[in-house]
Design brief:
This protein has 14 helices and 18 strands. The protein has 576 residues and is α/β, with parallel strands linked by helices. Strands 5-4-1-6-7-8 form a six-stranded parallel β-sheet, sandwiched between helices. It has a six-stranded mixed β-sheet with strand order 9-15-12-18-10-11, with helices on both faces. Helix 7 links the parallel strand 6 and strand 7. Helix 8 crosses helix 12. It starts with a strand and ends in a 12-residue tail after the last helix. The relative contact order is 0.13.
Length: 576
Amino acid sequence: MKEIVTIQVGSYANFVGSHFWNFQDELLGLADSPESDLIFKTHGLNMDAFYRTGETDNGILTYTPRLVSVDFQGSLGSVSSRGTLYGEAPETSIDNLAWTGPVTTHTSQPLKKNLFLKSLYMEQNENDSHTEVEDKDIVESLENGVEHWTDFSKVHYHPQSLYELSGLWIDLNSFNNYGIGRDSFSGGLHAEEINERLRFFLEECDSPQGIQFIVDDYGGFSGVAGEFLENIADEYTNIPVLLYSVRSPDLCGDSTNRKMTVSRKLHDAVSFAKLASFCKLIVPLGLPSLHTSRIAKYLCLDDSKAYHSSAVYASAIHSISLPFRMQPIGPSAQLSNTCGELNINDLVKMLAGQGRQNMVTILDVAMPPPSLMTDIKKVEQKSLLEILQPLTPETSQDVEDMQSLESVTVHGAFASGCKRASVSQVKEAVQSAYINAVKRPKFSHVSVSQCPLPIPLPFPSIFGNLVGRNGELLSLDNNSNNNKGILDNSSSRRGSLEVHSIPMAARLRSSIAVLPFVENRLGNLRKFGIARGALGSEILTSWGFGKDDAEDLAETLSNMVLTLKPYSQGSSSDSD
């Protein structure tokens, strides 16, 4: 078994991670539930890849995520940083202090649990008062009242998992650039403590396959992550890092303040160049608007709610991660619910280790995809590949790239109507789509699982009313009880009470379609940070980057451009 350690750095990254771990927890619960669909009991996924077994001081066995989470002090809301399984750490008594002068103790009242967390507490204490009426109230309260990522987390965490950055002594709104994050991590004991927590999880692994790293690419947490990644690269040279840099839609707009706009553009360039330097594969995620994007065809999203947008990114990351825990199929196996297993190192070699060796990849998704055999009289017939839409910003559309490399994961797909497709049917459909495609990649890998994405209770109500109970796409003909307005997908939202699971299709691709993303960051760094009289040169200096440092960053970005576009004039020699 090859283990994965997950790292989440930043508030939005932890929103994404909270949804991700809710999916895993739901899979574990459904596998043990006598009432669940058989597909959840025989999913063929090794959950030990992401989880560790342990034991409390009282001898109670535990099963918790192999996770290191970093966020602001106070970001956990009403949840303890030690979790709930191992109890609280003993408080330091003032009687043991060496100080002999007067002592004043200031304590703050703990935040009250919301309705969802109260219901979890009642379940854990065998209080059977959790009813459907309460579920409706819980869903409504989460839609209107999520402030912290722990507000909707249903997972038990190990005491080593949740780390709060304390003692920053700054306004959190000022924690908005790479330099301040880097200084916060390196100063004090934060770096040592966080590295020790990662070492705790890695050293108990028999054969770690890699690190799944999710980071806020906006603000100071990218600086924290950059320093953390550099330590990882130095100490764990043989463990590949798959990095997702995520950004909330409400942080994607340009500021009306000129200096702030320049600062943001420089931060984007610096953050991307530094983060990419210390990982094997980087996946930028963060559309300016999910609500208006093509991914939202069957979704009703509120871009102002991190609770909403993070659920989409978490769903995509879950799909991409499925091959990492698929059980290998032996030669004598007659039937399997999965195919196309990969580990993180296999994925890195596939997408970044061959061809042009580009490490910046695009993540596309269909949420949910239609059935494989859609009635062409009702819906414009498109292949599984054609319906995939990018979650990576600033990418070119419909670009032809004969050197592109792709890894596709499809799970829980329907053959037609509500009939689940077999693994072979899905694989044949994807392979047929590649054969018939006008623009084909140089290489593609297909992973398939019959297990759909489970929708846990605290999942947001982001589905339109064209999405059925199991993620099937409804029509006027098969929804006669609700014909009126059914074609208006936004007329009502559906959540976990109406939708219990959905099929998913996701793709990672190494393609020149990502070139605008890289070129924009290189251009902004040169224009605002390096050119003679650049408006942002002082900003870079305040972040700890001199002229030579800025030139090095530009060279890193320029090399990425040259990898994608070898005949461009993007080399660092023309940056003067």
